[in-house]
């Protein structure tokens, strides 16, 4: 089977890539990148360079750049601070995500896995959480047989980019995790390797419909 990842150079995408490399069911991994050579070499890996028009441009010509796959994984995402505005944040976390999902639908995807976020809700008072939920809602309406949304809390892993506030939160989580009840530990922090593993393995079950995996379930009897 062929897997395709959007957002493969980020923290979650990199973890997804490592999980897929070690899955014997996966014969080829296609990763959408902004610059060629961003991911290094691997016998299964093939890079697809994102055009200047982004995912909307790919959607206009879904068969133009080797985007056919069985499983599609979306790890696209940013922050309000990095994006610079609510509109710019939405352009990544909703527009690009939805365009990628529609591309997957057009290519006949068997399964689509989305890295969303804890607290995603259309009724949330927080813009971040509402946008995440709107992306989920758009994907849920598509004609893709298997859709899996995983909603991690604070992602525990080593980022390439500097996020001081997040780094501090992770250090605090690591310092107090041994004193927390197991469920609280899972709700407050999600190890990135577990997020990636669970998302891939759930998609590979090809269970029809839409499944949502909450932060409290990550690492629980998986």
Report on this model:
With 222 residues, the chain is α/β, with parallel strands linked by helices. The chain has one domain (2-217): Rossmann fold, CATH 3.40.50.720. It is built from 8 helices and 9 strands. The chain has helices at residues 11-21, 54-60, 80-83, 86-106, 127-140, 164-176, 182-188, 192-203, and strands at residues 2-6, 28-33, 45-49, 71-74, 111-115, 146-151, 154-156, 189-191, 209-214. It has a 7-stranded parallel β-sheet, with helices on both faces. Strands 7-8 form a two-stranded parallel ribbon. Helix 5 links the parallel strand 5 (111-115) and strand 6. It is globular. It starts with a strand and ends in an 8-residue tail after the last strand. The model is unreliable at 165-188 (pLDDT under 50).
């Amino acid at each position: 089977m062929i897997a395709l990842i959007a957002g493969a150079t980020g923290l979650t995408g990199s973890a997804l890539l490592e999980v897929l490399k070690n899955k014997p069911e996966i014969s080829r991994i296609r990763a959408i990148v902004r610059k060629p050579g961003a991911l290094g070499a691997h016998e299964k890996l093939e890079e697809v360079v994102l055009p200047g028009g982004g995912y909307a441009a790919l959607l206009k010509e879904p068969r133009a750049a080797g985007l056919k796959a069985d499983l599609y994984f979306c790890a696209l995402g940013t922050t309000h601070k990095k994006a610079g505005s609510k509109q710019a944040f939405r352009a990544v976390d909703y527009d690009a995500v939805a365009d990628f999902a529609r591309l997957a639908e057009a290519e006949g995807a068997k399964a689509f896995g989305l890295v969303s976020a804890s607290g995603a809700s259309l009724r949330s008072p927080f813009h971040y959480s509402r946008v995440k939920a709107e992306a989920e809602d758009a994907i849920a309406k598509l004609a893709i047989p298997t859709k899996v949304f995983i909603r991690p809390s604070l992602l525990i892993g080593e980022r390439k980019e500097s996020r001081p506030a997040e780094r501090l939160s992770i250090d605090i989580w690591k310092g107090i995790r041994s004193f927390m009840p197991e469920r609280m530990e899972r709700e407050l922090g999600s190890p990135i390797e577990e997020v990636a593993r669970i998302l891939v393995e759930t998609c590979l079950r090809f269970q029809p419909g839409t499944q949502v995996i909450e932060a409290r379930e990550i690492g629980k009897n998986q």
